[in-house]
Write a structure and sequence with these properties.
Layout lengths: L11 E2 L2 E2 H6 L3 H8 L6 H8 L30 H13 L3 H12 L3 H19 L6 H14 L4 H14 L5 H14 L17 H5 L4 H8 L12 H17 L9 H4 L6
Helix pairs in contact: 4-5, 4-6, 5-8, 6-7, 6-8, 7-8
Length: 267
């Protein structure tokens, strides 16, 4: 019968039992020093060095940069957690919990209450976006009413949260903004300056001799125009500008500020 492995006689190594080797803190250093095939400690450190991850380029900084990570609500909830709850619940149209998060912020302090409105302004663009194009305007008005309505201010905040949480969601403005910033930083995108941008309103356009007629023919073009647009005024303006250029050319008129900035006459 095979003996129990717990009852085996301990194996020895250099006169020391394996069990004692494992427990002797000085043994490892002594054994390594005797090993003729072991590289020096400095080389070993280099050989064993693990690849260190570089800090990410995008996203928020360390939480210590957010002062609201150090503030808690009357019920002991960190304010940065409340902000996260508020925004995630609005995104998910979970109205009740979003309103509860807002109430916890409003009742924490006046500063945290104002921080709530800063987040709502961002959410109106970042998460609701084109789902409610006038959302930023409505949030601004409700914020003004919050500040001007003693005793009724919480109702304004509640309405703002409900408005955003119940609206259709659209994050494309946020995605587009982040994409542009990332691509430009990587050197993979840059604004193009097409020829039609060089019109009478720019130095380049004026140096090319372009006037208002070129602007009407080119620079004033629009797409997705309102089908019912009434252009009766445009046609008359174009005729006025055509006569002006025929009589006076395309050189820019004198600056309206020339008289005000000219040096005073001296006797």
């Amino acid at each position: 019968m095979r003996p129990d492995h717990h009852s085996r006689t301990p194996r020895t190594l250099g006169g020391m039992s394996v069990s004692s080797v494992a427990s002797d803190s000085s043994y490892r250093a002594t054994f390594i020093a005797r090993d003729p095939f072991r590289a020096s400690d400095a080389s070993a450190v280099v050989m064993r060095k693990e690849r260190r991850l570089m800090p990410r380029l995008y996203g928020p900084g360390h939480f210590t940069e957010d002062p609201y990570s150090q503030v808690v609500s009357p019920h002991g909830i960190p304010v940065d957690d409340l902000v996260a709850v508020l925004q995630k619940e609005i995104r998910r149209s979970r109205i009740d919990n979003a309103v509860l998060a807002a109430y916890e912020m409003v009742t924490t302090s006046a500063d945290v209450a104002q921080h709530l409105w800063r987040r709502l302004r961002i959410i109106a663009v970042e998460d609701v976006g084109m789902g409610l194009p006038l959302g930023p305007v409505l949030i601004d008005v409700l914020h003004r009413n919050f500040n001007a309505t003693p005793g009724g201010e919480w109702m304004m905040a509640c309405h703002a949260v409900r408005l955003l949480a119940s609206a259709p969601k659209d994050r494309t403005s946020s995605e587009h903004a982040d994409w542009v910033a990332a691509k430009v930083a990587l050197g993979e995108a840059l604004v193009e300056v097409p020829d039609y941008a060089h019109c009478v309103h720019t130095r380049a356009g004026q140096e090319l001799g372009r006037g208002l007629m070129q602007w009407w023919d080119n620079g004033a073009q629009v797409r997705d125009e309102l089908p019912a647009a009434d252009h009766r005024y445009r046609e008359e303006l174009i005729e006025i500008h055509r006569r002006d250029e025929a009589e006076n050319g395309t050189a820019p008129r004198p600056s309206r500020w020339a008289g005000a900035t000219a040096a005073p006459d001296c006797d």
